Amino acid sequence: MKENPFEIRKEFADRMTEDDLDYLLRQLKAVMEIDSPSGYIPEIEDYLVRELEDMGYAPVRLRKGGVQAFLGGQGNDALVAAHADTLGAVVRFVKPDGRLMLAPVGGLFAGHCERENVRVTTRDGRKYTGFIARANASLHIQSEEELAAKADFTKNVEVVLDEDVQSEQDVRALGVRAGDFVALDPRYTVTGNGYIKSRFLDDKAAVAVLLAYARHLKKNRLTPSRAVWAHFSLHEEIGHGATGGLPEGLTEILAMDMGCVGNFTEAGEKKVSVCAKDASFPYHYDVVTKLIETAEREGLDYGVDVYYPHYGSDANAALRAGLDLRHGLIGPGVYGCHDYERTHVEALKNTFLLLKAYFA
């Protein structure tokens, strides 16, 4: 008989309840439905503040955007960071035929988002749907040069609005103009055997885990062994996530981000990954060692990985900003990134349990 992936395995039963898992999965779906390309702050920030307040915390908003909450504890201060921003785009230019040229936000590649449904948000809060397509999109009438051309935001990729617009003037009458944010449909799906497919599992999967951990502490009246802050950054995809506005006295930052599943990694879609090094430099030796020891002690399904040659995190950004902190990185294994991605419920469980045990 096939195992139900949404049940808590017996060896996990005293550490993660069905209620914890149900809340985590509900939060993952909820945050996936909120548009939050880097730089577009209002909707996701408001949601995170409300959710933390409902738990009984007193969250604060950073001036540049982002949300922090003190989770409790005494002693050496640690901060756990997960980023709620995603890849996306802004309108670069309204073309004479009413189509929209795009400028990517973060590492969004044109070839990874053709035929994707989008929402365009104007400065006054109106939203319009559309989709990303090649100019002259029908294959039946494209020239050989058009068929062979690489997708390129500067040349041949545009947004077609789901509105009766034929000109630049028609689009401007809708209130759409340069600088308006464009968010891609995540296409969030959970299969019957526990696989989760969506855009932006990097890093909303970790956001859901961190929310579930914060709720677990409040619900059970638990106190971490150290003073712990939760930090939801909104600019990680563009490089300056957890670089400022952090609480005074911190000694450690633990980033929660995706674990890369692929060649030359131990990560798997059902595992929690401990990152030993990213594209820039190794993570703090003592932090990595303690994370590995904790995963071993707890009997978790985990891997130790080096994410090279393209990877950075909020912890990486904090050190580049000159902060004197020990730093580490964990996250659920995710197959694919900056495109359509996949993980598994088991990876979320293992990540939750490692986070919980690390600060127990």
Please provide a written account of the structure.
- The chain is 26% helix and 27% strand.
- With 360 residues, the protein is an alpha+beta fold.
- The chain is globular, with a radius of gyration of 21 Å.
- The model has no long low-confidence stretch (mean pLDDT 96).
List the helices and strands and how they pair.
Layout: H1 18-32, H2 42-55, E1 60-61, E2 66-72, E3 77-83, E4 88-94, E5 100-105, E6 117-121, E7 127-134, H3 144-148, E8 157-161, H4 168-173, E9 181-184, E10 189-190, E11 195-198, H5 201-219, E12 228-233, E13 250-256, E14 259-261, E15 272-277, H6 285-298, E16 302-306, H7 314-320, E17 326-335, E18 341-344, H8 345-358
Parallel strand pairs: 3-12, 3-13, 13-17, 14-17, 15-16
Antiparallel strand pairs: 1-2, 2-12, 4-5, 4-9, 5-8, 6-7, 6-9, 7-8, 10-11, 11-18, 15-17
Helix pairs in contact: 1-5, 5-8, 6-8
Class by alpha and beta content: alpha+beta
Distance between the termini: 35 Å
* Count of extended strands: 18
Strand content: 25-35%
Q: Measured on Cα atoms, how large is the radius of gyration?
A: 21 Å
Keywords:
360 residues; alpha+beta; nine-stranded mixed beta sheet; six-stranded antiparallel β-barrel
Short account of what is shown:
By secondary structure, the protein is an alpha+beta fold.
